[in-house]
Design goal:
This protein is an alpha+beta fold. It has one domain. The chain contains three helices and ten strands. A four-stranded mixed β-sheet has the order 9-4-3-10, with helices on one face. The radius of gyration is 16 Å and the shape is globular.
Length: 177
């Protein structure tokens, strides 16, 4: 099994478990997810991380439970596998960002059964690293349609839809509370 970790740092030889920078409410009994861990993502969900680290974004996926009305409202005529939203203020940073996709063999990682995320409680050494110079091309390659909006808050109703909703760094969005 292959897992990825994305970074703007090209020189990580070994990933050491570390606590998250901004702890969040993980739900009852899941506070340990704010503690020292190495995080990784399945290839099918890498679209969430094809952005500069601090870029606020929302990524929507169809699920088997997606209703025709939600598909029409959020995907319209798009044939994309996922729709990603970012704010205009971040467009140039996305355009000029270079990311490094670190590859792991999955050994020692635990599946969180949550949006393709995996964690390791011990140090991990990547088996390879890819340089991504064109994030727009990387997004297209994994079936993502990018939509650039003034603010992310109008996409908030998708949280209550039958789509899968992943929000990353929303605390950095213009008017997300």
């Amino acid at each position: 099994m292959v897992l990825f970790h994305f970074s703007e740092d090209p020189a990580i030889g070994r990933f050491e478990p570390r606590p998250v920078v901004q702890p969040s409410d993980r739900g009852p009994g899941r506070d340990w997810l704010n503690g020292p861990l190495v995080w990784a993502i399945e290839p099918q969900r890498q679209a969430m991380y094809l952005f500069p680290r601090d870029c606020p974004r929302i990524v929507l996926w169809l699920t088997p439970a997606t209703t025709p009305a939600d598909r029409e409202r959020w995907f319209g005529a798009s044939s994309a596998d996922a729709i990603a939203y970012i704010e205009w203020a971040w467009l140039e940073r996305v355009r000029h960002c270079r990311l490094y996709r670190y590859v792991f063999d999955g050994e020692g990682f635990e599946n969180l059964h949550d949006a393709g995320m995996w964690i390791s409680r011990r140090s991990q050494t990547p088996t390879a690293m890819d340089t991504l110079d064109d994030l727009f091309a990387a997004q297209r390659a994994v079936g993502v349609e990018l939509r650039v909006v003034e603010r992310l808050s109008p996409v908030r109703p998708a949280l209550e839809s039958s789509l899968h909703f992943s929000g990353v760094r929303l605390r950095n969005a213009r008017d997300w509370s």
